[in-house]
Amino acid sequence: MVKYPEERIVAEFERQHAVNGTWLPHLREKALAAFKTSGFPTRRQESWKYTNIAPIVRRSYSTPDGGDADTKGAPDLDAHVLVLVNGRLQPDRSVLHGLPAQITATSLTDESHTGLIHAHLAQYASFAAEPFTALNTAFPGDGALIHVPADSVLEKPVHLIHVTTSNQAAMVQPRTLILAGPNAQAKIVQSMVTHAAAPVLINSVSEILVGANAHVEHLTVQSDGPQVSAIHHTSVYQHQSSRFYNGCFTFGGELTRNNLSILPDAEHCETLMHGLFVARDRSHIDNSTLVDHAKPNCYSSEYYKGILDDRATGVFNGKVLVRQNAQLTNAYQTNRSIVLSETARMFSKPALEIYADDVKCSHGATTGQLDKDGLFYLRARGINPEDARRLMLISFAGDIIEQVPIEGMREVLYGEVERMLQ
Amino acid sequence: MNTDTQYLHQVADSDYEHGWSTEIASDTIPKGLNEEVIRLIAAKKRDPDWMLESRLRAFRHWQTLADDQDKYPRWAHLDYPDINFQEYSYYSAPGSKPRYESLDEVDPELLRTFEALGIPLQEQKVLAGVAVDAVLDSVSVATTFKEELSKLGIIFCSFTEAIEQHGDLVRKYMGSVVPYTDNFYAALNSAVFSDGSFCYIPPGVRCPMELSTYFRINEANTGQFERTLIVAEEGSYVSYLEGCTAPQRDDNQLHAAVVEIIAHKDAEVKYSTIQNWYPGDEQGKGGIYNFVTKRGICAGSGSKISWTQLETGSAITWKYPSVLLKGDNSVGEFYSVAFTKGRQQADTGTKMIHLGRNTSSTIISKGISAGESNNSYRGLVKIARNAENARNFAQCDSMLLGDRCGAHTWPYLEIHNPSAQVEHEATTSKVGEDQMFYCQQRGVSEQDAIKLLVSGFCQEILAKLPMEFAVEARKLLSIELEGSVG
Predict the structure, then answer these.
(1) Which residue in B has a C-alpha nearest to residue A312's C-alpha?
(2) CB-based contact (8 Å) between A344 and chain B?
(3) Is A361 on the interface with B (CB under 8 A)?
(4) A337 contacts on B by Cβ (under 8 Å)
(5) Whether the predicted pLDDT of B141 surpasses 50
(6) Which of A145-149, A343-347, A349-353, B470-474 has the lowest mean pLDDT?
(7) DSSP letter at B187?
(8) Within a 10 A sphere around the Cβ of A39, how many other Cβ atoms?
(9) Considering its fold, how many domains does chain A have in total?
(10) pLDDT at B205 over 60
(11) Do the domain assignments include residue A14?
């Protein structure tokens, strides 16, 4: 009997995760009900207009649970390392010595932190309107909890390495909860590593709480082959006078959707959203962002760049929402894309939805090819066309990479761009 | 500053300037919409068989859309209850006599209406050199300058007359740019349209005067379904004006017009609109629902279509004048000022579909929102696979004049060709405090300063309007601004 993809995936998870039945049952039930009501999104929905996930979810996936950890391919950073394999934390592979005692980096099933987890999990990433978040919430398996309490400073970044490994088609659902208390400072890097011969679907959800006056810098890096599809959802909640930086880097993959939803829910918040994607072959990369200015006196700046080659498709779907009492909001949004081939496509939809009058908001989007004058300048200096083109593309990407506030990451990212352009 | 604000509020409470209705005996059919009504309209219009067939085809298609709840267009950023289409009457003709040969025959009451609106036909004939095809509700009551135009081979007449006398041209072009399957309201219009304007410019002819039609909705509860068709042959030029005001009404009046423009090789069509229909009262009651499908096709190489609009009226505006850039080297332009106040809602913008090589398009949109209104720009720029060297520039600026209004920008950019250069820019802000300070410091009152600044904000667009229109536009904007600031 042919089943709808929704039914098949739910059945598969139910079979695998029967053991975890006692873990937050009430929440999971609600999420499952929400998922069953909505089903997977279709292109008829405005937010999925340019991304068709039907071929991805139509496949049969197994749901591997744990496995061998091979972190080869992940950036080598001077950091505290947490390794998750197929969504499950591997304490023996993680490197956490030197982590200050008050700071927690552990599994989401760690019973000594149940109170914290119950108080915050699924509080920021609403699953009512996001079917993938609902599915993740219904069957989270495991994930990582990073807790930086009030007044603590995390000097070195925490590096979360999500390893996906499977011999057959697999779907994994990592979950991350990052809590930064008042005046805390933290840098978090999440990188995805996949070892799989068959198609893999990663459906990850990260929730980040930024306390009053806290500074959080969060970076996601995904660099994958054509067998990997990913739906990443990041929800951020900012308290008074907090500062949050999000860097989102996507290189390759079959289909990637990066959802970023930020709610600066108090005054004087600063929000930076930077993104870079390089897509070639038949890659499809979709960045959908929302910054919901609910309170006055906040600043947000968004800058996404993309390079598209071969038959790749890029989507930028950014929205700045300024609510009625969010006076004195400053919001900027920019999306620039370079299309290199006849068959690559770019869809850009930068939207402003503004209900307050005393604001300064702007957005800009450009799509084009490499600047001919720039190419001419370089060629006139004896640089061959391939090198000139490569140099210009790297400097195009450099605008985003140079802003990355985490030591060691810039070199890694330049390396990735170079690799993609070869 | 407070007294100024109070003054502005007082003016805001004043009633719609052009709000009254003319008492003329009307020929109106009962409310409701079914095949019988379509046949009745066709009979009243003395439609030929092919026209009736076309209406019925459109009506049957519309019914499939109307019967399916999911097909009712709800995607726009507009908040209004679903329309009950059976609650409207779909045909109304002023007076009992359908045709006039000279102005002397026109009902003097009607002429006074036009005069009150500041558009006396006689004066315009002499002063402005404008041929006026005045449409009061649905039947054309006066067509002037026709003889002068006919010497050049230009056809400018009501749609009804065009169907009678130039049936071949109408059959060839009607529905070629906006087919009845295009959207919900285009289907409705194709089924029930009562009249409109038809304009044909022969090859190589430069139309010596601005062609203009004044629309005015005059019957309560009568949807006005106009149809405009403009055909510009090779190397021709025409500038077309459309402007409207409407009397104050309690029930929402439905308007679903269709405008089609065909520009052949090297032809240029400039289409300007001032829309000032009744926007509803303070609570948003009454007011016109305006659902318009406007589209032009640059069919031949080197052709150009330019849309300029000033939107200040209507409770709901749903309007996206678009250009299909099919011919190589063709040019599309969209210049718009949309002003909303009270509880008005506007969702307007454009579509520039680049199909030919070396095509270029420019979009400049200025939105001004006041009161509790919502003003959205929604635009699509699509560069097709074969549109080599396409160029687009879009700029959408919004100004907010109150703390309870909304300004939104929803651009869609779809790029399928690497040689395209597409740029979109948008800003949203309030009236600059330093600019206000500068004006007030020099003794300019708050409301005058705001008028001045808004006028400057829109200057770029208003300058694109033909001269006599630009004067009216500035006047209108200034009247609208009074009392919308505070």
Answers:
(1) B416
(2) yes
(3) yes
(4) 415
(5) no
(6) B470-474
(7) H
(8) 13
(9) 2
(10) yes
(11) yes
Helix, strand or coil, per DSSP, at residue A375: helix
Which of B385, B403, B415 is opposite residue A367, by nearest beta carbon? B415
The reply to whether A375 touches chain B by the CB within 8 Å rule is no
Q: What is the mean pLDDT of residues A314-331?
A: 92
pLDDT band with cut points at 50, 70 and 90 for residue B334? very high
H helical segments located in A17-174 = 25-38, 54-57, 114-120, 131-138
Closest partner CB to A351 (pick from B400, B410, B422): B410
Last residue of a domain, one of A207, A241, A266: A266
The answer to whether A39 faces chain B, any CB pair under 8 Å, is no
In this prediction, residues A178-198 reach a mean pLDDT of: 92
- Which residues fall within 8 angstroms of residue B62, CB to CB, at 6 or more apart? B180, B184, B187, B188, B190, B191
Q: Is B474 in CB contact (< 8 Å) with chain A?
A: no
- Examine residue B456 and state whether it is found in any structural domain, yes or no: no
A329: in domain: no
The CA radius of gyration of chain B, in Å to the nearest whole number, is: 22
Mutate to test the interface with A, among B365, B391, B408 (most CBs of A within 10 A): B408
pLDDT value, residue A98:
85
Classify residue A343: in a domain, yes or no. no
Residues A10 and A125 both lie in one domain:
yes
For chain B, how many structural domains are there in total?
Answer: 1
Query: In 3-state terms, what secondary structure has residue B464?
Result: coil
Nearest CA in chain A to B400: A357
Q: Is A261 on the interface with B (CB under 8 A)?
A: no
Rounded to two decimals, the pTM is 0.83
pLDDT at A51: 92
Q: How far does the CA of residue A62 sit from the closest CA of chain B (Å)?
A: 36
Of B402, B403, B422, the CB nearest to A367: B422
Q: Does A311 touch chain B (CB under 8 A)?
A: no
Last residue of a domain, one of A234, A266, A298: A266
Interface of B with A in 61-100 (CB under 8 A): 75, 77
User: Is B443 inside any structural domain?
Assistant: no
pLDDT at B302: 94
Q: Which domain holds residue B272?
A: 2-431+463-481
Residues A170 and A53 in one domain: yes
Give residue A215's identity as a one-letter amino acid code.
H
Confidence class for position A22, pLDDT limits 50, 70, 90: low
B420 touches chain A (CB under 8 A): yes
Instruction: Choose among B53, B21, B27: nearest CA to B38.
Output: B53
Q: What is the pLDDT of residues A365-392, one digit of tens each?
A: 898 888 889 999 999 999 999 999 999 9
Length of chain A: 422
Judge whether A196 and A170 are in contact, CB under 8 Å.
Answer: yes
Which residue spans within A100-184 are E strands per DSSP?
Answer: 104-107, 144-148, 158-166, 170-172, 175-180
- Tell me if A346 and B427 make a contact (CB, 8 A cut-off): no
Region A197-222: mean pLDDT is 93
Q: What b/e readout covers B272-303, taking b as 16+ CB neighbours within 10 angstroms?
A: bbbbbbbbbbeebebbbbbbbbbbbbbbbbbb
Residue A36's domain comprises 5-266
Q: What average pLDDT does the segment A292-311 reach?
A: 94
Mean local confidence (pLDDT), B190-214: 86
- What span, in angstroms and rounded, lies between the C-alpha atoms of A131 and A35? 5
Whether A291 is covered by a domain: the verdict is no
Could you give phi then psi for residue A364, rounded to 5 degrees? -145, 145
The DSSP call for residue A90 is -
Residue B309 lies inside a defined structural domain of this protein: yes
Q: Classify residue B449: in a domain, yes or no.
A: no
Please report the ipTM that was assigned to this predicted complex: 0.79
- Look at A353 and B406 and tell me if their CB atoms are within 8 Å: yes
